[in-house]
Design goal:
Length: 345
């Protein structure tokens, strides 16, 4: 089946889950542990979980208990797509060695986001519907300073035998260096273990003042650079529609397809992360999340007759909310949380 046919099938399946009152996407912080201390990491921010507790203050699990609790979440939420984040997921590589084959056996698309701080088990390379996303923030001097001990040397060694998606979050430090993004793309385009390259823009919290935050001019320049560079690098997956969303992001979580279709849970598997995976109070007007851009681009697509996909999506949300309310209480608790209210555009 072609990629376009596969995408269409996935969209139809997701639409069915929404109409049934479920969120099709599930994001799970599988552990609170991480050996990295990256500047600007939203997961360990003071307000990521609402301000009363931080990720390091939550419970998390290991061993058979982690596996059983994780799979119980899958049974309850019945997602089509699962993102496993952290913390650093590879801290729980033994448990993932059980979980990932089970998800593959169920036909669930799974995305594992890692720093590649330790070797990625070779047996994972053969798992169907598993996407390994490795976070690489710039070229070696900047990346190694930000993300040690997950240095370039370790990453290159630890991804051997896999086809990874490189994910770079552009910060102001990178954006201000002429030719930097092109050099980064060339480095990973030439790596034989790279399948795709994704580029996000740093997403700040409201009122944040930091060295990472991009100015409006920075954002415009990075977007222009990505448009120029895309034809030069075949592994760079940044479609025009996604770049258009970076230029004009959804203005609130209620306007964001990703936020509306994704349930995010932290390491105790109970606490919801709201309003989206960033938690806290994200500045949506400066959002650079690639997941949000991808889904929003689909939502802005116009069908024959000029109707936006997003209008159908939000109408479907209303139907899904009604279905969820009619579901017995015990089953309703198994849904992906209450779908947030929004009137169709």
């Amino acid at each position: 089946m072609s990629d376009r046919g596969l995408l269409a099938r996935d969209v139809i399946h997701a639409w069915g889950r929404i109409l049934a009152g479920y969120r099709p996407n599930l994001s799970i912080e599988i552990t609170k542990e991480c050996p990295l201390r990256c500047p600007g990491c939203y997961a360990y921010g003071d307000d990521h979980l609402g301000g009363d507790v931080t990720l390091r203050g939550l419970a998390d699990f290991r061993g058979d208990e982690l596996v059983s609790r994780f799979m119980a979440l899958i049974d309850r939420h019945r997602p089509l797509h699962v993102s496993i984040v952290g913390g650093e997921p590879l801290v729980r590589y033994r448990e993932l060695g059980v979980i990932l084959p089970r998800l593959a056996g169920r036909g669930i698309h799974t995305q594992l986001v890692t720093s590649a701080v330790r070797p990625i088990p070779l047996e994972w390379a053969s798992l169907r519907r598993l996407q390994l996303v490795v976070s690489i923030d710039g070229l070696p001097p900047e990346h190694d300073a930000r993300r040690a001990p997950a240095t370039y040397e370790r990453i290159v060694k630890h991804i051997a035998g896999h086809q990874i998606t490189v994910h770079c979050t552009v910060t102001r430090q990178q954006a201000r260096k002429e030719g930097y993004l092109e050099e980064f793309l060339r480095t990973w385009q030439e790596n034989p273990h790279t399948r795709l390259i994704w580029v996000s823009l740093y997403t700040p919290q409201k009122g944040e003042i930091s060295a990472e935050r991009l100015t409006s001019a920075d954002r415009a320049q990075v977007i222009a650079d990505l448009r120029r560079l895309r034809p030069m690098f075949s592994k760079l997956q940044m479609l025009d529609g996604m770049l258009n969303v970076y230029a004009q992001p959804p203005q609130s979580p209620q306007d964001c397809v990703f936020a509306q279709t994704t349930e995010c849970l932290s390491s105790d598997f109970e606490r919801r992360i709201t309003p989206c995976q960033f938690g806290g109070n994200p500045d949506c007007s400066n959002c650079g999340c690639i997941a949000s851009a991808g889904l929003e681009a689909i939502g802005r697509h116009r069908l024959t007759g000029g109707i936006q996909v997003g209008r159908i999506f939000y109408a479907s949300l209303q139907v899904g909310r009604t279905v969820a309310r009619l579901r017995p209480v015990t089953a309703a608790r198994g849904a992906q949380g209450e779908l947030e209210e929004r009137s169709p555009a």
